[in-house]
Glycosyl hydrolase
Amino acid sequence: MIAQNAPQLNAKNIDSVIKAMTLEEKAQLLVGGGNDGFVGSGSMLGHQKKIVAGAAGITVAIPRLGIPATVVADGPAGVHIDSHRGGTTQTFYATGFPVGTCLASTWNTSLVYNVGRAMGNEALEYGVDVILGPGMNLQRSPLCGRNFEYYSEDPIVTGTIGTAMVNGIQSQGIGVSAKHFAVNSQESDRTRVDERVSQRALRELYLKGFEIMVRNSNPWTVMSSYNKINGLYAQGNKGLLTNVLRNDWGFKGIVMTDWIGKRKDLPIESEVAAGNDLMMPGYPAQVEDIVNAVKAGKLDINDVDLCVKNMLEYIVKTPRFNGYKYSNKPDLEAHAQITRQASTEGMVLLKNDGHTLPLKNIKNVALFGVNSYDFFSGGLGSGCVNVPYVVDMLNGLKNAGIGTTPQLTEIYQNYVKYATAKLKADKNPEMWFLDQGQPKLDEIEITKRCIEHEIKGADAAIITIARQAGEGIDRQIEGEFNLTDNEKSMISRVSDAFHAAGKPVIVIINSGSVMETTSWRDRADAILVAWQPGEEGGNSVADVLTGKANPSGHLTMTWPISVADVPSTKNFPQNPDYYNLTDKIASGQMKGVDYTNHEEDIYVGYRYFDTFGKQVAYPFGYGLSYTTFEYGKPTVKEHGDKIEVSVSIKNTGKVAGKEVAQVYVTAAKGSYEKPAKELKAYAKTDMLKAGQSQTLKMTINKRDLASFDEAESQWKVDTGVYTFKVGANVEDIKGQATLNIKGYTEKVSDVLKPQHKLNLLHQ
Ligand code: BGC
């Protein structure tokens, strides 16, 4: 029976609203609606009128109880909504901020907070209640198609940068959905793959970044990932969503599914009972399924009520519930300045022989590489942003007063026009993500003769090597991690010709993730990783090239010599034709596709290379500057459950700059095999003038030193002497200090056990 005078929702009457709700209404609240562009419709589409065009979804309104619909839109590099709407000439562009890898490479949490604040403000002013981001999966393999959206191969970097982003976005009174929880380490068969991983690697690596973020911010929502973890879908995994997330970590928000709310092989009662509050997008039939499951005694009404309560607690916080009058006119100019500053600071200088950079007396350059003229702002798929413009290299240089040689510029500009039109005409409709973002155009052959013509008019050569990647597909080794033949010959020919004329060659890497560099780096005088730096990219690169900005970005992932050196590679899918393969995967037994064994266990990224003494192209934490720094002797002190490491840093060079000090810990010898050292804290200096010093204080939570003890389901810090090594990257340790630490244990839930034997890597 529907009561007369139903209560109207407010922050204080949630329990009475729940009492007044019918079972159908409760079920409706748990089944959200998607955007009508979403592939595989049949979901709750058009079920609510579109509120913000292009937003990824909505939660359902129940007007009888004063419950409004709320709007969720993709992130993580900006607010993903449509830039144009029918019936108006007004545009709704959103700022393209740097991708996750670029932001993390700043190692500057207050800068990331400011980016989050700007992004959150844009969402607020466009009528969006939740940004679907940040992306916080660990970069397990250089081949994962979505690495660009994630921060690092390291959980401390992931957790601290994620915290800054969440706090920044949420400072605007809107929410986040930190994703994809958890172990969404690959895109191939991402919606079904079973990620088989030890409890220790889960706790210490794959969950740790999320744990740090949940403990240090109050994320409104978390998104459960598509994949399974040790045999169970994340969205139906009570161990993950209730025991770990809520009970162990104290999460108070809602969990929503990634964009398949209904699984063929997962009854909805398992999702609700697991603590997955919202199916996104759900299907109309799921409302009925919930009602029937409760009536049949398969689903406890208390579990439903718990999700409903979480949903209502979320709804009363939203701007939409609170009647915020959004302007649809965020300050895009102010945000362009923020993105420019952030991308400049995230760029990593890999090489700078003979002080090639900053450029001196360079008036004109020969600008090679298709992407110099079609610079990537971000990646493909839901994480792309409909930006007002992208400053490419040509315009970035021009804005900085540097011209380009006209003939080469004309060749490339015409080619970009032609290839863009051709790509559109040839498009495979299954590759939906190519419509979301800037797809990659093939590189063209540049002949020796053409290069010879360019030398006369150019003081230097700049070559852009770009990579695109995105949702739904992993990267290939050939032509994606490695260079293509056209790229190789372009670098060799340009380098031979320009070096013979005594002119420098600079390579700009415009990629959201790692690439091969050792086979060609000798041919370049300087290499700058610009990542996918957002809409102001070309201006940011020019800021660094001209010395207006001194680079201070550092790698948050190892750059290996070859993909084969990475231990996860042998268990990573390499199916170039994956899209055609999808239909054929039926057996459930295809290794690397239906299931993926994390045999490298805790040895992900530098934890492997450093412990096993393997050479890399560029180590974790690496990045050059135009100045030099001297480190003082570090000191370490214990204060209760915290450890403080201090070090003084002096700018010993000639120009102002910032340095990132990194604290790596070698644990006491105890009951567990441990990586040789692990990052536990870091800090970035302020802008230090030449000769200026600063003392950095870095805090480590003692619990972050613990190993995960699977047998007892506990965190365990072993008693003994710990060494705190302070360095400029994992291979360049400048000084160390030791501390005797008294061990302790902390019990946590015993969940997420592997169902299959894993052949784990050991020292
Ligand atoms: C992606 C999510 C995204 C969602 C909504 C999914 O396919 O995996 O990251 O937030 O779509 O667009």
Q: What stands out?
A: Residues 56, 74, 132, 179, 258-259, 382, 471 surround beta-D-glucopyranose (CB under 6 Å). The chain has a mean pLDDT of 94. The longest helix spans residues 406-425.
